[in-house]
Structure formats: C-alpha cells, structure tokens
Write a structure and sequence with these properties.
This protein is mainly β.
C-alpha cells in the first residue's frame, strides 16, 4: 500500500523499537493508509487516505 496520505501528506515516521533489556533497534511507524473511492469536488476520485483523515473529515458519501 502507498505509504503517504493524499489528503494530509503524512508519511512513515522512524524511531527505535526498545526491548525489555533496553536495546534499541530501528523501526518504522507506518501510517494506516486505505484505498478509497470518494466524492471530491463533485467527481469520484480514487485516493489513498489515512484513517485519521477519514475519521475527522466532513462525512462524504462512499461509493459502493
């Protein structure tokens, strides 16, 4: 899945996975991106949108 939201331009963040023994290894915080068909400006568009944008945006009719 595409790693960037088309609405808010969020992308994966990077950090450390910390074990119980406090060892730090690299990891990615991946954005939860969904592939949706949405009505935008009167036209049906296929967008990659994060779940945060889906939850907080004005309710738009979902296609099918």
């Amino acid at each position: 899945m595409h790693g960037r939201c088309d609405v808010c331009e969020r992308k994966p963040g990077y950090g450390h996975k910390v074990s119980h023994s406090n060892r730090k290894t690299n990891r990615r915080f991946v954005v939860n991106v969904q592939h949706r068909h949405l009505m935008i400006d009167g036209r049906m568009r296929t967008v990659n949108i994060c779940t945060r944008c889906l939850r907080t945006m004005v309710k738009v009719p979902k296609a099918r």
